[in-house]
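Regression test case RT-17, inverse folding.

Input:
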């Protein structure tokens, strides 16, 4: 039984680590909600970054974002969830 639990934990860890990116090209599986976004790898997570909207706080970010908005480095970013994000 302990072996099964260890295998399940290892499988979960492997799946979680596989979701991390190191460069933008590893985010090809992510699609952004609208044309004024670009897909990029930010802090090892695939995100959709709004190319024109800037922010000082998360309340400045609007639009469709399944995983919730984040204001990072003055840019509105959508993502930070398993599978990258939409």
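Golden output:
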């Amino acid at each position: 039984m302990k072996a099964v639990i260890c295998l399940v934990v290892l499988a979960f860890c492997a799946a979680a680590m596989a979701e991390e990116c190191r460069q933008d090209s590893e985010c090809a599986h992510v699609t952004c909600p609208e044309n004024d976004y670009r897909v990029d790898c930010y802090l090892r997570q695939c995100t959709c970054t709004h190319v024109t909207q800037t922010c000082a706080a998360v309340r400045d970010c609007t639009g469709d974002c399944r995983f919730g908005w984040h204001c990072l480095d003055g840019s509105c970013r959508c993502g930070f969830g398993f599978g990258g994000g939409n």
